[in-house]
Amino acid sequence: MDKGRKLKIGTRGSPLALAQAELTRQALADARPAALAVPLEATEIRVIRTTGDHILDRPLAEVGGKGLFTKEIEEALLAGEIDLAVHSMKDMPTRLPEGLVIGAMLPREDPRDALILGPELAGRCHGIAGLPQGARIGTASLRRMAQLKAARPDLVVETLRGSVGTRLGRIAEGRFDGTLLALAGLQRLGMADRASVVLGIREMLPAVAQGAIGIECRADDAWLVERLAAIGCRATAACVDAERAALAALDGSCRTPIAGLAGIDGTELLLQVLIARPDGSTVHRETGKAHVMDGVALGEALGRKLRERGGPDFFRD
Predict the structure, then answer these.
(1) Strand ranges (E), the chain
(2) Can you give the pTM of this predicted structure?
(3) In this model, does residue 254 exceed pLDDT 80?
């Protein structure tokens, strides 16, 4: 890197995205060995507004789903306007543009979902089963909608989009009885205390790669690829790669609720994957385990099993 050059980090402009970009800056500054560290003063953050940031009045599945939070950032990366991009891995399509790679994933935060309840229910309800009959829950996630409806068909689930702060504000105002947010995002914003209930994975299986931060760069930038390798978390990458392999094998449309979570126990990787109809009327789940080095193959196998169980029409809705 030329002396005096600033390493430009591209990100969305939400408070959570900026917090994740700052975590990346700090990780680069703390890299070991020290020869691979990039001082804070040698990095700067560039905010890039994405298509997904402009759409706040409807579910993203209606206008394209995955890729809406990455397209403009990746275009800037390919054009050389930025040097690296920081993403929530759950927003990343399974196929990257030619010439780009995920150079590192930072250590994953708790991947579970949190139930945030309004003042009338906070402290009185301890999970989805305890919600009052006909409770109004706001979310824009088809995955969350489907699992909510499968567990509680009586719930009224309506679209709620916006930043974490916006959604928390809607709950505080009483417009909804509750909402679901990724616990990882609340933790990174210093707002974990806003979670009324942390949901277990049997109750609400997380999105594929939820809680993981991915750092994308140009494949031919050897200088940066070397430094990103120094800050990457291998365990996080192994789990997320297995989950994304299942997602790729499923090749579901943006209208298909899909969830997945992997964990590591010693040298063994455990993976759960779920598909559902948007109305929650049908839910299929597969679990499996393999050596951690075989996680991608396990993900592909579970994805194929679920495609067979769902049948040819499952992913066409």
Answers:
(1) 7-11, 43-47, 84-88, 100-105, 113-117, 136-138, 156-158, 178-182, 197-198, 213-218, 258-265, 268-276, 283-291
(2) 0.92
(3) no
Q: The domain spanning residue 26 has which CATH number?
A: 3.40.190.10
Given this model, what pLDDT does residue 4 score? 66
**Residue 94, Cβ neighbours under 10 Å: how many?**
15
Helices and strands (DSSP H and E) totals, the chain: 9, 13
Q: In 3-state terms, what secondary structure has residue 58? A: coil
Longest dimension (CA), the chain: 63
54 band by pLDDT with thresholds 50, 70 and 90? low
What is the DSSP pairing of strand 197-198 with strand 113-117? antiparallel
Residue 312 banded pLDDT, cuts 50, 70, 90: confident
| pLDDT for res 122 | 83
Query: Are residues 89 and 147 part of one domain?
Result: no
Instruction: State residue 24's pLDDT score.
Output: 98
> 37 by DSSP, 3-state: which?
coil
Q: Does residue 100 sit in the same domain as residue 218? A: yes
Residues 6+ apart with CB under 8 A from 70: 50, 85, 87, 91, 92, 93
- Residue 159 to residue 252: CA distance in whole angstroms: 21
pLDDT at 163: 85
Considering the domain boundaries, does residue 286 fall inside one? Answer: yes
Phi, psi (degrees; rounded to nearest 5) at 122: -55, 130
Q: Is residue 207 part of a domain?
A: no
pLDDT, position 290: 98
Residues acting as catalytic residues: 91
Residue written as token pair 């397209």: 71
Percent of the chain with pLDDT strictly greater than 70: 92
Do 266 and 226 lie in one domain? The reply is no
**Structural domain harbouring 139:** 113-198
Shared domain for 78 and 224, answered yes or no, is yes
3-state secondary structure of 79: coil
